[in-house]
Structures are given as C-alpha cells and as structure tokens.
Amino acid sequence: SMPSEMLMKIFSYLDAVSLLCVGCVNKHFYHLANDNGIWLRIYSSCFRPKRTIWKMKSEQTETVSLDCAALHDRKPGYWKKEYIFKQIAAVKTRVMRLVKPVDPYTGLPCKNKEAIKASGLSWIIVLKDKNGKEHIMEKANLSFKDTSVTILWYSTNWPCLDILSTLKLFGVTPLLPDQSRDPSKNGPRRRSLIAEYHLANLTESSVALGADKLVQLFSLNPGLLVGLWKEKNEIAFIMVSLHYHQLLERSTLGSATVQYALPPDKPVLDDVDPEYGLHDYSLHLDMHGGSCTYLCGTFKSLFCRKGDIANGYLRLTVVSLKDNTKHLPLIGTLGLSWETDAFKGNVKDCYVMDVTLVDETGKPFWCFSAPVYMELSSKASSLYDYMGHIYTTDYADSEGKVCVELVWLEETKEYFIVNLVLYISTRKVNTWYGTNY
Predict the structure, then answer these.
(1) For the chain, which domains are there?
(2) Which part of the chain is the F-box domain (predicted)?
C-alpha cells in the first residue's frame, strides 16, 4: 500500500547489489528497481563519463553533463544492464591480467589463486534426492597447490545417502563482485555447471579407495571423493580436486544446466612424424594428501620412439626401473587427510595426484587432478638397492593412463618411486597434431 514515490525514494539509497535483490521480491518491486534514474546515478558514480578539452598549455578534464535524454530515451532497465555489463567486463579484465603470466614449468597461469579471488569465484554442491528436492551445500574449505585446488565440504546435516540420486558441482560467481568484502550467498550470483555425478548405488558403482577407523572413501570421476561414516553408512564429507587447466572457464562460462563446452583443439603445426614419435615433453607431478605434499617436481625432455607405440597408446617413460639414479623418495607416509566439525583423520595409502603434461611448445597437453590409491603388489622387489614391499598406483581416463610403482623401505620408513610411465592415447595425439599414429 505504500506509494510508489516513497518506495522509489527508499530504493534510491540502496547500493547495486541490494537493488538487484529487492527487485526479486515481486513484479511491482522489479519494475520500480529498474528505474533508469536510480541506476544512472549508480552508473555515473562508478564509471564517470569524461571528456578531454585540449588547450595550448594545459589539459583540462571535465565531467559530461547527464541530461534528460539519458533517462527518457532509454528503455526501463537500460542503465542497470549497462552497469552490470561494465562491472562484469572490469572483472574479466582484472582476471585476464592475472592469468596472462605463465609458469614455464607447467604452462599454466602463475597467479591462479589471485585470479580466483579477483573473480569472486567459489564452489557449491547441490544434492538432489529421489523426490526432486535439492540440498545446497555452501561452506567449503579450500587448499591450493601448484596446479590444483582441493575443495572440502562437511556438515552435520547431510541428507541420507539412500535417498540421494545426483550431485552437481557448480562454480559460483557474484554478479557484481565487490573487492572490498567477501561475496554474500544472498546476493545475485551466477552458476556454472562443472560436473554431475550419480550417487545411486554409490558403494557399488564407485571405486573404493581405502578406509580408516571412522570413514571409508569412494571415488567418482572426475575428481570426486565421498567419505562415508563406517557405522551409519552416511556422508561424512565430500572432497573435489580441480586442476587449474581451464578451471576458470569451466567454473564461470557454463550455465546452471549445461556444462561449458571446451573448444576443439586446433592441430599444432610441428615436425611430428609417426616414425619419430613425441619429443621434448615435460611432466609436472604433484602428489599430496590435502595439507601434506609428498612429491612436487618437474621432469623434462620426455620422448617416445616408434617402438613405444602399441595398443593405441604412446609410452612416455618418466622414471625407469633400470635407472636407479632417477628413483625418487617421497616425503612422509602417504595418506589423505580429512576433517569434519568434530573429527579428523588420515586414510593411509591414498592421495591426490596432479598431472600436467606439457608439449614441446609449452602448452598443457594432458592435465588432471584425481584421488588415487596404492595397492600392494604380489611380486617381490627384484632391485638390489630396494628390498621391500612393492606398491602400484594406476590412473586412467579417456586421454591416457599413469602407472606408478613404489617400494616401501622399512628401515628408513619411506617410499621410493622406482617406475613411472605415462601412456598417451593415440586418438589424443592425432587430434592434437593432425597426424595418424
């Protein structure tokens, strides 16, 4: 019942975010909150239009007057749209400036953490039950590594696992990022769908990674880890590991219902010859368990010959079983750390593996971040220098495979990587170079 003039006066004191929120109350508020007069004042206070008048000895800058034509000749909501578009463009400019410098070892932007903060990017998961009801989990802990970010959600009110059907992972960005304060979950935001996982029959359809006294871990590609309480078989926490390669694009450029479609790779002009094989590749490998880093290193000058191509894969040997000068010790005992409000733990013999394979031009060729586990091998060590149990870690996706062989030395209580081989899909190579392996 309040007159529109009084509402307009009240709205004129609101900032842009509050004005967008109040416009969601009802149709009447929406039309009033679209007023060009209010939005023009907000626009002009943030993006002051200026013109330059040149004189013989000095330069004078004055503000262009904003006459009635700027208001009455525009459709309602025009200046709101202009303000939003300019704010988004300003944020994109800041982010692009940050991601421009590239690390020569990884081929990835050097300032990913700063770019994520500048964009206001965060992540949420939406759990959907079999009745169609959605449960949104906002609060998350972030852990940044050289080439990935690990996101951990935990709560005391997870819905029952038996009634859940899907989990959706979204990147969330504020429509109007404010650099001076943390983005509010009640403000206007955009969602970008990153991945969707099916949780029905989770324990049967996923890979069991390991367990400790309290929880057991299950993995779903790509990069999702679900921790279940052992006694109740209910969710304890959910962890996702995201590689920096195309992270910003996937987290910001998709819609709420459709994932961002990556542009097809353009063939790289090179002297690649199927008779010669790949050459001068680099691998950046990071093995970590949340807060602990077990190995972080770069391996250069990787190559394969014609004889290394078989069964649809090209083999790149990073660490050879026969060359003990390149065998690598790991720092600490491998395990994946987790925590909730009341408990914390560490599941042994599993960890997160970040792989960044860079081609000879310095471009990221194959990248992933995923939880993996070690499995005790039945064969005994044949190496004279390492007498101990052998463990293997294997990872595979549509683009390649990773095979790691480790030896546990009981005397020094440490693992040694004695064999590390990458297998790259010939389909991936043919698409990348336009060749025919």
Answers:
(1) 1-45+74-100 (1.20.1280.50), 121-174+188-251 (no CATH), 281-433 (no CATH)
(2) 1-42
